[in-house]
Amino acid sequence: MAAAGFGAAADVYERARPSYPADAVAWLVERAGIGPGATVADVGAGTGKLTRLLVPTGARVVAVEPLPEMRERLLRLVPQAQVLDGTAESLPLEDASVEAITVAQAFHWFDPDRALPELHRVLRPGGALVLIWNSRDLDDPLQQALEDLLSPYRNDVIAQSYGVWRPPLDSSPLFGPLEEARFPYAQRLTADGLAERAESTSFVAALPDDERAALLERVRALTHGREEPFDFNYVTEVYVTETVPPRRGETVSATS
User: 210: exposed, middle or buried (C-beta count within 10 Å: 0-12, 13-18, 19+)?
Assistant: First the structure.
C-alpha cells in the first residue's frame, strides 16, 4: 500500500513535504565527510528533498529511488544528481563505491536483514550511513490534533516514531554506535497546505477518493481561527554511524 500511495501522491509529496533545516544538513555533511571528491548515495530519495541540499557540497550525488513517479520528478528537479532505479535491498552500485549514504524519511521502510548488508557493501571502509527524519513535534497542539485525526487510518503502516528501525541497526556488527543530533524546525503552512501535508502520507493517499476528500476537510477544519500562514512544528532527527569491517572469515549479515 505504501508504494501505491507514494506513487499516486508524488506531486503532492513534492509540494507538501518540508525541506530540512540548514543547521541539520550542515551537521550531517561535516560529520559524514560529504564534499568535493566524495560520492554520496541518497537512498530512497523520493522527489529529492534531501538530494538537492547535498548538491551544493560539491560531492558527486547519486540518488536511488524505486518509484518511477518519484524518479521522474527527481530527474526534473535535481538535474545535477545521477538518478538510478533501485532499492536499499538491491542497490545499483559497485562494492565500496561511496563515502556516504544518506536516507531521508525512508529507513523505517527498509528490510534490515537485506538492507544493512547491502548498504555496508557499497560503503567504503569507514564510510558513513546517515539517517534523517523530520519527526512531527507532538508537543505542538496542532500536530497532536492531526495525529489524533489520522491515527485510525494508519492501520499497519510503519511510522518512524515507532522505533522498530533501531534495534536491528544497534545490534548489527556491520555498523558502529549511532551518533544523534536534533534540530527544531517549522514548516509554514496554510489550511490547504496542511491538507496536502496529510495527503502526502502513503495511507491517506491510498484512500478512496470520497473518503480521502472527507478526511482532508476535517484536516482543514483543525486550522479554523488560525492566522495563515502558521508554523507546523517538527524535530529534525539526524543519526550517523560508520561501517565496521567484518572480522576475518565472518560472513556479512545484518545482525549478530
Answer: exposed
Distance CA 46, CA 176 (A): 27
DSSP letter string, 14-44: HHHS----HHHHHHHHHHHT-STT-EEEEET
197: in domain: no
**What are the angstrom distances between the C-alpha of 111 and each of 81, 104, 116, 123, 132?**
26, 16, 8, 18, 17
Q: Is the dihedral of CA 231, 141, 17, 93 positive or negative?
A: positive
Per-residue pLDDT at 202: 82
Task: Give percent helix, percent strand, percent coil of the chain, each to the nearest 5.
Answer: 40, 25, 35
Q: What is the pLDDT of residue 10?
A: 81
- 126 pLDDT higher than 80: yes
CATH at residue 123: 3.40.50.150
* Domains identified in the chain, total number: 1
Whether the per-residue pLDDT at 160 is higher than 70: the answer is: no
Q: What is the pLDDT of residues 4-61, one digit of tens each?
A: 445 457 889 899 999 999 999 999 999 999 999 999 999 999 999 999 999 999 999 9
In which domain, by residue range, is 169 found?
2-139+158-189+233-242
- Whether 100 maps to a domain, the answer reads yes
54 occurs within a structural domain: yes
- Cis-peptide into 229, omega within 30 deg: yes
Q: Is residue 250 part of a domain?
A: no
**Cβ 182 vs Cβ 237: under 8 Å:** yes
